[in-house]
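ARCHIVE CARD
CATEGORY: sequence design from structure
SOURCE FIELD: tokenized fold
FIELD CONTENT:
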């Protein structure tokens, strides 16, 4: 870690549990200064209390512009921004899923742009579900404008707003696409922006979906590795992506799913 690194802050949003907590633990072990944010401030504080080094926790609902602005202000110069926060199909209705997973995530990426310095990296979590959505130029054109006040109504007009499972997959496709769009602007400040698509991971959210969607067991059984992933395995990929070893990786999605999408598509 260089002297310039010590003046930077890594921000992990969704750090209170699951993959976000695993990312926080690994980055802290590397000696990085951390700001942990979660809608559940108590959960984030509990994670922070067990970490070495300079770590702070605070509440942040990513749908709250004021809360996000406060987080940006506390950041200073950005080291890495890791956004794991999101809702799965059994956690909310379709419209809420779009609001959190796509609209708010896009707003967070844009809000942090003033903090970018040479070497800053953003890693935004999408999902392997995004890779199972067929390309549709008409739908993509709607997803590509998440700041539009009528984006969700446009999706509703074509029957895609109210099914939570569809909303999850489509919202995550939107996340993959927003990274492709915003990467050039991050690059203008010599920063990088990547999306990461986890597969079925053994977390509280993952177990909720696994218990309520029988197809997930079939996907695990049909995957190349025939098992669920561990949060620490996802954190290890994040650590690579925010490191200098990934200095030419930007504007793309990294699928980390144990070969589940490959197994699904060739079944």
């Amino acid at each position: 870690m260089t002297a310039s690194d010590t003046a930077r802050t890594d921000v992990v949003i969704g750090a209170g549990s699951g993959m976000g907590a695993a990312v926080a633990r690994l980055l802290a072990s590397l000696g990085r200064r951390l700001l942990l944010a979660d809608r559940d401030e108590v959960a984030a504080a509990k994670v922070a209390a067990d970490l070495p080094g300079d770590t702070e926790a605070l509440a942040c609902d990513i749908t709250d512009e004021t809360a996000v602005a406060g987080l940006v202000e506390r950041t200073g110069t950005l080291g890495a921004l890791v956004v794991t926060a999101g809702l799965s199909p059994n956690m909310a209705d379709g419209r809420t899923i779009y609001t959190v997973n796509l609209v708010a995530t896009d707003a967070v990426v844009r809000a942090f742009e003033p903090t970018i310095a040479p070497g800053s990296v953003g890693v935004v979590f999408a999902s392997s579900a995004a890779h199972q959505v067929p390309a549709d130029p008409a739908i993509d054109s709607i997803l590509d404008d998440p700041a539009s006040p009528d984006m969700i109504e446009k999706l509703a007009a074509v029957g895609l707003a109210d099914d939570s499972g569809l909303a999850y997959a489509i919202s995550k496709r939107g996340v993959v696409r927003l990274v492709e769009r915003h990467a050039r602007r991050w690059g203008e400040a010599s920063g990088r922006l990547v999306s990461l698509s986890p597969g079925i991971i053994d977390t509280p959210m993952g177990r909720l979906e696994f218990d309520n969607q029988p197809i997930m067991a079939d996907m695990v059984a049909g995957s190349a590795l025939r098992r669920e992933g561990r949060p620490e395995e996802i954190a290890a990929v994040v650590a690579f992506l925010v490191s200098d070893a990934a200095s030419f990786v930007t504007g793309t999605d990294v699928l980390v799913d144990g070969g589940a999408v490959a197994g699904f598509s060739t079944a």
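CARD ANNOTATION: DSSP finds twelve helices and seven strands in the chain. The mean pLDDT is 93.
SHELF: design records, drawer C
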